[in-house]
Amino acid sequence: MNWKEENNSLYKSFSFKDFAEAFAFMKRVAVLAEEAQHHPTWKNTYNKVEIWLQTHDEGNIVTEKDKALAQAIDALL
Amino acid sequence: MNWKEENNSLYKSFSFKDFAEAFAFMKRVAVLAEEAQHHPTWKNTYNKVEIWLQTHDEGNIVTEKDKALAQAIDALL
């Protein structure tokens, strides 16, 4: 699945084997977010992780920061 | 703030200094969830963490499992 641009956000849903695998992914994304000082809105239920990216400082729109973080997140998989 | 029971879930919102502190909290909750084999639905944006607890196996209602996890989460703070 690719990132979808909707409601001024980049959105993607990820599914894993179980919670442990999903949260391991979240820990790796957290490192990327801190490095970029650009953080997602994300939601997790057991093996599913949903991520929304937008740039708050630019008025909650999608910017290059979001596209770069989306690429970096995809590169984890 | 206490846990609120709404829409067949226990709900609570937590605020932290920044993303790093919020995610450190999430890592500790993840350990509790795995130990209990009982996992939240939760959502994070920067320093804010929202948690919903319900028992999927019992038909998505609030059970003692949820109340026990809520207590254990509160004990982290």
Describe this structure in words.
Two copies of one chain form a homodimer. Chain A has a single domain (4-74), classed as Transcriptional coactivator/pterin dehydratase (Gyrase A, domain 2, 2-Layer Sandwich). Chain A is 38% helix and 27% strand. Chain A has two helices and four strands. Chain A has helices at residues 19-36, 64-74; strands at residues 4-6, 9-15, 41-45, 48-53. In chain A, strands 1-2-4-3 form a four-stranded antiparallel β-sheet, covered by helices on one side. In chain A, helix 1 (19-36) packs antiparallel against helix 2. The first copy, chain A, is globular, with a radius of gyration of 12 Å. At the A-B interface, helix 1 and strand 3 of A face helix 1 and strand 3 of B.
Order of helices and strands of chain A: EEHEEH
- Could you say what the CATH architecture of chain A is? 2-Layer Sandwich
What percent of residues of chain A adopt helix (DSSP H or I)? 25-40%
Please tell me the total number of domains of chain A: 1
Content-based structural category of chain A: alpha+beta
Overall geometry of chain A: globular
Strand order of the largest sheet of chain A: 1-2-4-3
Main sheet properties of chain A: 4 strands, antiparallel
How far is the first residue's CA from the last residue's CA of chain A?
12 Å
The largest chain-to-chain contact, stated as pair and per-chain residue counts, equals:
A-B, 16 and 16 residues
**What's the CATH class of chain A, please?**
Alpha Beta
Number of helices of chain A: 2
| Relative strand content of chain A | 25-35%
At the fourth CATH level, what is the homologous superfamily of chain A?
Transcriptional coactivator/pterin dehydratase
Rounded mean pLDDT of chain A is: 97
Task: Fill in the CATH topology of chain A.
Answer: Gyrase A, domain 2
| Uncertain residue ranges of chain A | none
Query: Regarding quaternary structure, how should these chains be classified?
Result: homodimer
Q: How many whole angstroms does the radius of gyration of chain A measure?
A: 12 Å
Strand elements of chain A, count: 4
